Amino acid sequence: MSSHCCHHETPQIKDIENLGRMRRVLWVALLANAAMFVVEIASSLGSGSLSLLADAIDFGGDALNYGISLAVLASALAWRARAAVLKALCMLGFGAYVLGSALWAVWSGSVPNATTMGVVAVLGLQTNLGVAWMLYAFRQGDANMRSVWLCSRNDAIGNLAVLLAAAGVFGTGSAWPDLLVASLMAALALHGGASVLRQARAELRAPAPAR
């Protein structure tokens, strides 16, 4: 997404007012993601959808990531970069797990319930669009805040993909659309994790500002 699409200025950590704004947004994001994690875990188990399970794990991971972001929000850049490394590793681990699960399901998976997939995906999409809208102003901040924005953006894309998977499962009566979308979500997590990890490592290598 181009930096010229919106005229918001990226808030600075040193600005107390913006720091409070970041903290409030992160709390809302954490609670919303935690709630959707519970909803999607239950729904994925009931529907047998791997893409819905992947989305649920993603929601849970994001809730944890938002908590880490809150913990280091006012810390020095080096500590925020270390937190970003941890979150990037979580994203990479999530992507690897889902990709492996999708490959395993090729041989052992069953056809999921398309109706449950669609309804829950719409609810998740509404949640993620709201969170992404709140986080948009922070998308070009340090690696810690950039990782928060990327998580929310990826989740919204993932929800759209689950909707497409639900339509594909309903239309074909096959589990393949669900497996393909789960693989796509895994690739998205791997790409986002690698991006955040590169920025965090660059921030850790940068010289400390003179006092």
Automatic annotation (TrEMBL):
Q: Per the UniProt record, which residue ranges are transmembrane?
A: 25-43, 63-81, 88-107, 113-136, 156-173
Q: What is its main location?
A: membrane
UniProt KW keywords = Membrane, Plasmid, Transmembrane, Transmembrane helix
- Membrane-topology descriptor: Multi-pass membrane protein
Keyword Transmembrane belongs to the record: yes
Q: Coiled-coil ranges per the record?
A: none
Record-linked InterPro entries: Cation_efflux_TM, Cation_efflux_TMD_sf
Q: Which Pfam families match?
A: Cation_efflux
* Keyword Manganese tagged: no
Subcellular localization(s) per the UniProt record: Membrane
Where does the record place the Cation efflux protein transmembrane domain?
83-204
Its recorded name reads Cation transporter
Organism classification: Bacteria, Pseudomonadati, Pseudomonadota, Betaproteobacteria, Burkholderiales
